[in-house]
């Protein structure tokens, strides 16, 4: 039978790896109206939940008084990176190499605009608060075209037409909140599971 000392040493190693080991690949979990993203540690409200509301009318968005806030450009950029857009390519247009990444993001987050006529892009388009002024708002967007597959990841797109009072049926808002299950808690749960499995194995041996 393994010694108790060896058992606890293995448990300690398992917990250390769980808490302090290299981060796992980001996982996105669809919760219906929002996406839980382990990479950024944030919940992302789907932009389709906030369509056709101008930045000036943002007070009418109920989520902003329920723990949600606007994402920063850096956070949107980090999300882009998880789907395959490199930091140096946050503003790329009509890039065949980005088609698969853009399609994956739209399939998960939904489309604020669907190109029914098949003449342009399906896209995901939204406002962030950072950098907003009386004459302009920043509207990161992701586009995907399937006829000649290509993708767009635009982080610094600036909308100046009637902004910030401009609204559009295809324009939403990039809203986030801290993930409801903190990463540390998830790691502790996993560590507890590893302890349980180790204990079962120890008793069997």
Structural features, described:
The protein is of the alpha+beta class and about 200 residues long. The chain is about 30% helix and about 25% strand. It contains four helices and twelve strands, in the order H-E-E-E-E-H-E-H-E-E-E-E-E-E-E-H. The strands form two sheets. Strands 5, 6, 7, 8, 9, 10 and 11 form a seven-stranded mixed sheet that branches. Strands 1-2-3-12-4 form a five-stranded antiparallel sheet, with no helix packed on it. A hairpin with a 4-residue loop joins strand 2 and strand 3. Helix 1 runs antiparallel to helix 4. The protein is globular, with a radius of gyration of 22 Å.
Number of helices: 4
Which spans of ≥5 residues are poorly predicted at pLDDT below 50?
none
Sheet with the most strands, sense and barrel status: 7 strands, mixed
Q: What percent of residues are in strands?
A: 15-25%
* Strand/helix succession: HEEEEHEHEEEEEEEH
Shape: globular
Give structural attributes.
205 residues; 7-stranded mixed beta sheet; 12 strands; alpha+beta; globular
């Amino acid at each position: 039978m393994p010694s108790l000392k060896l058992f606890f040493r293995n448990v300690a190693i398992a917990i250390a790896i769980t808490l302090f080991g290299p981060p796992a690949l980001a996982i996105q979990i669809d919760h219906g109206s929002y996406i839980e993203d382990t990479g950024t540690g944030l919940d992302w409200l789907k932009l389709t939940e906030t369509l056709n509301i101008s930045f000036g009318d943002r007070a009418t968005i109920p989520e902003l008084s329920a723990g949600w806030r606007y994402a920063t450009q850096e956070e949107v950029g980090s999300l882009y990176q998880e789907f395959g857009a490199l930091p140096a390519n946050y503003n790329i247009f009509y890039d065949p190499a980005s088609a698969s990444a853009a399609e994956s993001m739209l399939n998960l987050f939904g489309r604020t605009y669907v190109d029914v006529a098949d003449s342009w892009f399906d896209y995901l388009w939204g406002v962030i608060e950072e950098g907003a002024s009386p004459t302009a708002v920043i509207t990161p967007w992701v586009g995907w075209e399937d006829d000649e597959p290509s993708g767009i990841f635009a982080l610094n797109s600036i909308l100046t037409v009637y902004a910030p009072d401009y609204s559009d049926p295809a324009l939403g808002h990039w809203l986030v909140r801290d993930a409801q299950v903190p990463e540390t808690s998830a790691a502790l749960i996993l560590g507890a599971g590893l302890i349980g499995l180790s204990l079962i194995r120890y008793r069997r041996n």
